[in-house]
Amino acid sequence: MLNPSQSGASYFLKGFDIIQIKGLRTFVLVPLLINLVLFSSAFYYLYLQLEDLFSYINDFIPAMLSWLNFILWPLAIIVVLVVFSFLFSSVANWIAAPFNGLLAEKVECHLTGQPAPEGTMADIIKDIPRTLSREWIKLKYYLPKAIGCLVLFLIPVIGQTVAPILWFLFSAWMMAIQYCDYPFDNHKVGFNEMKSQLQQDRSSSLSFGFMVTIFSMIPIVNLVVMPVAICGATALYVDRYRN
């Protein structure tokens, strides 16, 4: 049994151990493969666009400055990896939502020692409208606040000082909501009630979200963030909210 006094950050790190447990690896594999396929395909597409862009730029750069390519190419790839990690994770969460809920269910059964409910692929398919509806609720909650934060970046002084801090805090909060929602949703707990419970233990929620946000910014590592965060969030749910 996990220690209820653990910080939210430690629960995320615990997710790395949980994904290696025999019997759970199969359910971890599906969101991992979805991440890998989406990321690889999108990155390859963006890489081709970068090739076209650099070919266009090289037509205007004198031959004596061609060495700039050795600096600009790695820089461009790093920027694409970091920025795209945020964009593709949102798409991946929508596509993998039914499987993410299933992973959370299996992890909870493992942690509580209870038998997993019987289910088939048909049950997963039937549940798709409900899980996508839940993702839509989270998106409606996210968009107005995200737009408000982005507007702050355009304000002189505030955009360079306060806005980055608020954006990071908001990102951490949304990561906590995104991944803690799966075990709550499995028990048919409403979105507002789930959000209210996370707010009552805001320090744990934010520290968990901080870790997810930081690891999501690391190229390649961000491929495993989704299943790790689901496992960690489920462990957090079992200890703090299940009863």
Explain the overall architecture.
- By secondary structure, the chain is mostly helical.
- It has one domain.
- It is 77% helix and 0% strand.
- It has eight helices and no strands.
- It has helices at residues 8-18, 25-58, 69-112, 121-152, 162-186, 191-200, 202-216, 225-240.
- Helix 1 (8-18) packs across helix 7 (202-216) and helix 3 packs parallel to helix 8.
Secondary structure class reads mainly alpha
Order of helices and strands: HHHHHHHH
Task: Give the number of helices.
Answer: 8
Assign an overall shape: globular
Mind summarizing the main beta sheet?
A: none
What's the number of domains?
Answer: 1
What is the multimeric organization of the chains shown?
single chain
Work out the radius of gyration: 20 Å
Poorly predicted runs: none
Instruction: State the end-to-end distance.
Output: 14 Å
**Proportion of residues in β-strands:** under 5%
The average pLDDT score comes to 80
* Helix share bin: over 70%
Concise overview:
By secondary structure, this protein is mostly helical.
Layout of helices and strands:
Blueprint: H1 8-18, H2 25-58, H3 69-112, H4 121-152, H5 162-186, H6 191-200, H7 202-216, H8 225-240
Keywords:
mainly alpha; 243 residues
